[in-house]
Every structure is written in C-alpha cells, then in structure tokens.
Design goal:
Length: about 80
C-alpha cells in the first residue's frame, strides 16, 4: 500500500493496518505525548497519543528522511543474519 491509498483510510483503519503490517522503528515522548514510529511501503507514520492513554490523537504521515531526525538515537533496525 502506498501513501496515497493509506491516506484515504479512516484513522482507525490506519492504526490497525500499522499494528498488523507496519514495521515498528522507535518510540519517543514529546511534552505529554507518546509517539510511535512505523515504516510501511513508501512512507513513515507517527502515531500520537497522550502519555499513558490508548486513544490515538492523530497519525502523522511523511516520506522525507528529515522527519526521522527526532528518532535517530532510538531507531531500532532489524537484525541482519
């Protein structure tokens, strides 16, 4: 699935799709928010929540590597065998 198609999904379906198919890369906090970074297809997705809450506030989608800067210290890449 590419970014254009993914954007057309409702946010709940986006979250479900990322949980099932996305590659979790990192997690960080910003102020009182918890952010989880996923990669899928040709884009990245940041899932924003209030810390210690399950409800998703929004999902920020981006393709440019500049969006990864805040995660550089915490991104976990898959091991290569």
């Amino acid at each position: 699935m590419n970014l254009r198609v993914f954007k057309k999904l409702p946010m709940g379906q986006q979250a479900d799709y990322l949980a099932c198919h996305g590659d979790f890369l990192a997690e960080r906090t910003e102020d009182s928010f918890s952010l989880r970074l996923f990669a899928w297809g040709d884009f990245y997705a940041e899932v924003w929540r209030i810390q210690d809450e399950e409800q998703i506030l929004f999902i920020h989608l981006f393709q440019q590597p500049a969006g990864l800067v805040a995660y550089l210290d915490s991104i976990r890449l898959p091991e290569v065998f």
